[in-house]
Amino acid sequence: MLTAKSADLEASCWTPFDSTSLRGEVMAVAQPWKKPGLDGYPHLKKLNDELHSMRFEAGLPSARTIRNHIGRDAQEYWIVNHQAILNAFQQPDLPDLGRLELIVAALAEVARCDDVPSELNRFKSLWKRAVTETVSQASVDPQSDAETDSGSGTEGKPVQDVPEQATESNGEKEQGESGAKGVRADEDQAAEFNYAQESLKGLIINASQALWDDKDALRVFLGVVRRSSGFSRLADAAEERRPANATFYGVKSREFENERSPAGLELVTLHRRLDEHRVKRKWSFTDLENQTGVSAGDWIRWYTHDELPSREAVVAFSHAIHLMLEEHVLLLGLWEAAHDALEVEARCEDLPDQVTFDDAWALRDAAASKLWVLAGVGGDPLSVYGPDLSGGTVPAFTVAGPAGSGRSTALVTIACSLLAAGTRVVLVAPKPSPLRDLASRGGVLACFEQDDLGHDELEELLAQASRAEPVVVVMDDAECLEKCDASRLLEALLQQGAADGTALVLGGDEKELGSGFRWSRRARKAHRGLLLSPREWHAGDLIGVKISGSIAGRPLTPGTGWLHLGDGKLVPVTVPRC
Predict the structure, then answer these.
(1) Distance between CA atoms of 429 and 531, rounded to whole angstroms?
(2) For domain 264-349, which CATH number applies: 3.30.420.10, 2.130.10.10, 3.40.190.150, 1.10.260.40?
(3) Under a CB-based contact definition with an 8 Å cutoff, are residues 143 and 195 in contact?
(4) pLDDT lower than 50: segments of the chain
(5) Could you tell me the pTM of the whole model?
């Protein structure tokens, strides 16, 4: 039975806590925890003492209470479990910084500390000094031969011999002594390896903290770390002791995750297939190296950087796990798809962000015909690309793309290139379009803004065309003119325009043009066009070429697209701006 005095004492210990945070747990009697022996490590001892002191100020909460206060992650796992909290207080090891910060923040909040960030900074400084102390002592005080002979571990802790049975013969005793020495050697080696791991962890975290404000430098540093042989062993060890929740040192931050490639579907699928087989066989990265002949560092880089493994590595992996022929073909098919997707991405990344019309026009061939149009620039070195409307099966060129893709801007560039070459144009813009701004330019015969293009008016203008003095119709929002009065005239233009010196450049919404109407279907037979940020793979039908899933559905990038000039090749281009 509790006395009044003991009840008051217990209440005073637990008063700082919010009872709702205990989640119905029965509170144990508050008591101090045993401190570890840290003689010879003054900075680490100071860190541990301050941690125990903060727990005392918070009312000596239990490990589970601290765990509850830290909370759970998005997958409903404890961010730090109660045993890890106990270890931070009671083990003679340097605690992980992320875990330490979470514990300190929880205790400071419970103790109603006025300045929690200052407490975190204070403990971070103590932790850094302890890291320096630990690494320094490991460097200047290596294990001596005498210590090894006496059976001491790397931290000066004796390793117990394997007990011998009293009934053993002399030969059995010698064998027992030999076995004991073997056990001690294995334990010493394991201790050295574990200590090397912890030292490497400490160095990585310490350097990361120093570079925290320079994110670019930090990314470079972490990239170098991932490629090191020491990290390969560390990754293997972490893989074998993977926690239930995928947190790194108790920190949920996703700040330094690599952004997934826009071509990521194929790459992610390949990685998932490879990982399924690897996990099924419980292979570490070192096992992968042993089984495939490809270095563990390469496998780690491919996983952590979302990179494409080499084809040789995928083939070696397939042979190592003895895949059936169908699965082997599937893996190589995924590799080919991912490779093509990444090639597309690389070619797009090489495009210039913006090019002026004058700069691009200066690159054209001076001997080009008056019906050559400037559609885009690209390549290395930078070159100009576009169709010659005086040739081909049909005198047409299609510009397609969704709203916001830069379709109207591309049509303006094409019209400007025709005017610069001395070719007369007829502008058709049934909806508000930048094409209308060119109506007053020299060489523009007319600009039609109504949604019912008249047959007689257009026929009169096209009658002025000849092979020497061609006339080109440049049309935006062509889907609005499906049933216009001039539809038969447009169809006739597409049938025999090359002989008459006329041609058609039409632009429209990818989806609307895809539905197809009579004279627009004939324009497709030109097998030429420009796709701007295509949404669907069948958009390639508009310009007479098949496009892959890695091209369709990419992020909308106004002014960049894929040009097809009838040769079966897709060229990534940036559209110059007038």
Answers:
(1) 19
(2) 1.10.260.40
(3) no
(4) 1-28, 139-181, 183-193, 242-262
(5) 0.48
